Amino acid sequence: MQLTFDGGRDGMISPDGSRMVYCRGDASLWIKGYKGSSNWDIYSTAFQSKETPIRLTEFDGNDLCPFYSNDGKSIYFLREQTMSVDEKPTPVYNLWRMDANGQNQTLVTQFSSDVMSAHPSFDGQKIVIEKDFQLWEVNLADGKEKRIPIEIASDDKSEQDIRRIVSDGNEMGDWSPDGREIAFSLHGDIWIMPALGGKARQITSGSSKDEWPRFSRSEEHTSELQSRQS
Questions:
Q1: Could you tell me which residue, 46 or 157, shows the higher pLDDT?
Q2: What angle do CA 51, 68, 98 make, to 5 degrees?
Q3: Is the pTM of this model over 0.70?
Q4: Residues 31, 87: contact at Cβ < 8 Å?
Q5: Per residue in 118-148, pLDDT tens?
Q6: Residue 55 CB: number of other CB atoms within 10 A?
């Protein structure tokens, strides 16, 4: 069932299931500090009636990612507002709160870099946000912010330069016109190496199987070969 007829994104249903809050706009979210007629604003609409969506924010800037508090009395959202960062005016997304009817809009966090992907805890006492590629916990009782430490156990990155001596498996060899090099196929890739032995150089890579390498027979190579032979 279609729920909105005016566009929209970031929809979130109220705890009692009677309403939905969402944002609507047309500005590219990659444009920092956009202010204009295409701003993203937050709207609310009811499910059980043909109510015209109610506009909750009219801020001259973008309001995004709204969600209800656990009791349904408040709505949290992200707002991009200009603030001083290193003594320069900078548009930054921070977490805001307002009543379910759009009144009493209040700043919750005061980070100097963008807040993203806010989600409430099950008990409604905290909100987890993403900032600077890390997770943070915001305590709604006192507004204090704390980074959530995350430790990921992983294997150390292996050496990317692998040395190996191959005595079989290479096939479909082709000598260069001057006789100095030989190209061949090995494990689905094309390699080239000095004809008298030495380090091979991988020419192709990828998931496709590469076979049957062949050197071009140019006049320059032919003349060079004839000169050495004479």
A1: 46
A2: 85
A3: no
A4: no
A5: 888 888 888 999 988 899 998 888 878 889 9
A6: 12
The Cα–Cα gap between 73 and 99 comes to 6
Which of 161, 133, 162 lies closest to 147, judged by CA? 133
The sign one gets for the Cα dihedral 41, 47, 52, 54 is: negative
Give CB contacts under 8 A, 24+ apart, made by 111-114: 111/145, 112/83, 112/85, 113/85, 114/80
List, in order, residues 6 or more apart from 221 with CB less than 8 Å away.
176, 177, 178, 215
Q: Does residue 198 have a pLDDT over 60? A: yes
pLDDT at 170 over 80: no
Confidence bin at 166 (pLDDT 50/70/90) = low
What tokens were used for 26? 């047309």
Query: Who's near 160: CB < 8 A, 6+ residues apart?
Result: none
